[in-house]
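hey
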């Protein structure tokens, strides 16, 4: 495990402390979880962009054509 020194505004520190206390976790755990969530989001964007480059409109339309043409269930309608 690594240790970092982080400088953040007092107002942000206060909000983080408050939310961490409400969740019953440490500030370190709160910030670690927030960083992990951000990392996962950024990695997902990169993964989807990479997958999109390997695909084609023709492949998508071919897969779509294999689906049955039925109305969605009531709970699945917009």
């Amino acid at each position: 495990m690594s240790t970092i020194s982080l400088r953040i505004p007092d107002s942000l520190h206060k909000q983080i402390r408050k939310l961490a206390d409400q969740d019953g976790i440490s500030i370190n755990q709160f910030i670690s979880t927030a960083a992990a969530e951000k990392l996962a989001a950024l990695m997902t964007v990169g993964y989807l962009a990479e997958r999109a480059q390997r695909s084609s409109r023709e492949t998508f339309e071919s897969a779509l054509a294999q689906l049955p043409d039925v109305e969605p269930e009531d709970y699945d309608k917009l």
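Residues 10-67 form one domain. The chain has a mean pLDDT of 93.
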